[in-house]
Design brief:
The protein has about 230 residues and is α+β, with helices and mostly antiparallel strands. The chain contains 6 helices and 8 strands, in the order ααααααββββββββ.
């Protein structure tokens, strides 16, 4: 079968609809990309639920039409992971009705907001690359959030920029999400990093191909290290 749609991934991950049907469960068992999407979205929607104190509700059908328009539709071709924060917005009930498109874009581009800044770092271009920016570690709503501002060259073709936290051992890392074209975004840190970084202090922005592989492309553009 084709990859699961954004709507089904969000429904399965956030418990807003029926669980996976037999064919979907079989696909998730075979398809690492879709199963990773379910796991990542489940962690993010849990963070949204815990941070906001709200009850998640199924989105209006117009929201999914807006998601299709934002990320270029569904189908057998693997979608870019940029759809994930959009699906979070829908799953959290943050975008409804006629305001769907504006709500989707606001969440994708969202930065700033309240909270206490715990650490900050400048993002500098790696050798042979260009770009700059900054990142702030913020405690807000009893959880940690990374706020990123970056000025990068536009990603070519179907490639996209992704934000990572890399451990001081240089091996372990977390993908926080796609950086929108504005270069501004905020990311709630997944458990167990939602309370302390535990060595994940390097902020990295990479250029990723849209090939369904969720691993780091090894093409980092800018980096910075948050002070301990």
């Amino acid at each position: 079968m084709e990859h699961l749609s954004a709507e089904r991934i969000a429904a399965i991950a956030s418990d807003l609809g029926p669980g996976p049907m037999a064919a979907e469960a079989g696909h998730l068992a075979r398809c690492r990309a879709c199963s990773d999407d379910v796991d990542e979205l489940a962690a993010v929607t849990s963070g949204v639920r815990d941070a906001s104190g709200t009850t998640l509700r199924p989105p209006h059908p117009d929201v999914w039409a807006a998601i299709d328009a934002e990320v270029g539709g569904r189908g057998a071709t693997r979608r870019p992971r940029a759809w994930l924060p959009v699906a979070v917005a829908a799953a959290a009930g943050l975008v409804v009705g006629a305001g769907a498109v504006l709500g989707v874009q606001a969440l994708r581009d969202g930065g700033g907001g309240s909270g206490t800044v715990l650490a900050r770092t400048d993002l500098a271009a790696l050798p042979g690359q260009s770009g700059e920016g900054s990142a702030e570690l913020v405690r807000a709503s009893d959880a940690l959030q990374l706020r990123v501002h970056a000025s990068l060259q536009g990603s070519p073709g179907a490639e996209y920029h992704e934000v990572w936290l890399i451990n001081s051992d240089g091996k372990r890392m977390y993908a926080l999400g796609v950086l929108p074209s504005s270069g501004d975004a905020s990311y709630w840190l997944p458990a167990p990093l939602d309370q302390q970084l535990d060595g994940y202090s390097t902020v990295d922005i990479s250029l990723e191909p849209d090939d369904g592989d969720t691993a780091h492309s090894q093409l980092s553009l800018v980096r910075g290290t948050l002070p301990g």
